[in-house]
Amino acid sequence: MSQAEERALELQAPTCTPLAIAPSRAESCSTPLAYSDRQRWTYLFVLFLVSTSNFVDRNVVSVLLEPIKREFHISDTSLGLLSGFCFALFYALAGLPVARWADRGNRRTILTVAISVWSVMTMLCGFAHTFWQLALARVGVGAGESGVLPASQSLIVDYFPRERRATALAIFNASGISGYLLGITAGGYIAAMYGWRAVFLFAGAPGIALALVARCALAEPRLLHQTSKTAGPSEKTMDALHALWQKRSFICGLAGCLCYWFFSYGGLVFLPSLLVRTHHVSLAEVSVVYGTVAAFGSILGAVGGGWLADSLAARDIRWAAWLPTVSFTLAGPVYMMTFLTNDFRTCMVFAFVGLALITGGLSPGLLAIHSVCGDARRATAVALVYFSATLIGGGFGPLATGALSDILTASYGDQALRYALTATTSLLVVSGMCFYSVGRVMSRDLEG
């Protein structure tokens, strides 16, 4: 590229208003201009598919808990261990080293390796003959999936200009819901027809092809000779962690995400079981009805939340924190009614509203975290969020909910799970308050 062309790109780069996201260390204001809209949306589509596969393989176990419990004769506490801690422990332990690699190296390579590992381990779950064999396979799934979200979100921020990032992140984050719902609907149908082992085989196989697609179709912006990301020394890991720890807005956002995922993993993973036990709905009906309701609610929340965040954050970036404040706080009582109602249709109405609220608030919350973390430690910041959320929320959330359900069973029988889930809704309100604190202080921490 000639000097004249480089100068033209600089002149086209968007300027930063006082409350806009300030670039750090030659932050990639010009990097997104290297790609056309068609390329950006193609890359986002591939990353969406990758993340969808990730969440299918992660969450498909939730619809299989009841048949697994019957075959291996295990308790709800063991189900919580299987669906939560076994996956979360190695996901969290591998997350930070992989994220530092993503902040410095080729994120396309990271995604290719990660997809291959988790897909193979998911298929191995289908061959488990004991509970502990299945648990070990889930450990492998967690280790493989630790690389996808930090690397993917870091790439999206490089692909898209800052005024369109909330929408792009919202679309990407909708993959979590699509993967969850695909796991619920397709997983429930396959389990009903062919058994729970076949579900893991069908879930893992597409990932092998996706690994090849990601390797061939994605671009690594750091390989562009005109980007400045490769210039200068890399920030050391301890320096990056120290810089993030000094940002109160990041710490509050981290706490808000932790509470959000403790509910999402600890509460929602048991919702299909609640419908089967207390509403006496068949597994096939849960897959179709709840899957459809959740799909529309999640799409509405993801698209609406991303659009609203881009619109409001363009005026004041603090709206990226205030939107999850409102949505999570409202979602708490909505989900309480979801778990307590005795009417299946009413339950589905509240579930629809609840999913729209929590998915609508997640992407703005992540945008707020991206805005304060700094370009040199973006993947590290995302990994810390998912480290805490996955280890504590994903690891201990289902375990705590399952254990509480077992404790309450002596008094409430089949209704115990209902009250255990109701107890988790207060965490959404706490999450909303954490993001309110982010909005109060984030303007002084803005970095890019």
Description:
By secondary structure, the chain is mainly alpha-helical. 77% of the residues lie in helices and 0% in strands. It has one domain (34-219, 236-444): MFS general substrate transporter like domains (Growth Hormone, Chain: A, Up-down Bundle). It has helices at 3-12, 37-59, 65-72, 76-104, 107-125, 131-145, 148-159, 165-194, 196-217, 237-245, 248-266, 271-278, 283-313, 319-340, 344-373, 378-412, 416-424, 426-441. Helix 4 runs parallel beside helix 6 (131-145), helix 8 (165-194) crosses helix 15 (344-373) and helix 11 runs antiparallel to helix 15. Mean pLDDT is 82; it is low at 1-30 and 225-233.
Q: Can you describe this structure in just a few lines?
A:
The chain is 77% helix and 0% strand.
Uncertain runs are 1-30, 225-233
The helix count comes to 18
* Strand-residue proportion: under 5%
* Topology order in helix (H) and strand (E) letters: HHHHHHHHHHHHHHHHHH
CATH fold category name: Growth Hormone, Chain: A
Decide which structural class fits the backbone.
Answer: mainly alpha
Q: What is the helical fraction, as a range of percent? A: over 70%
Secondary structure layout:
Elements: H1 3-12, H2 37-59, H3 65-72, H4 76-104, H5 107-125, H6 131-145, H7 148-159, H8 165-194, H9 196-217, H10 237-245, H11 248-266, H12 271-278, H13 283-313, H14 319-340, H15 344-373, H16 378-412, H17 416-424, H18 426-441
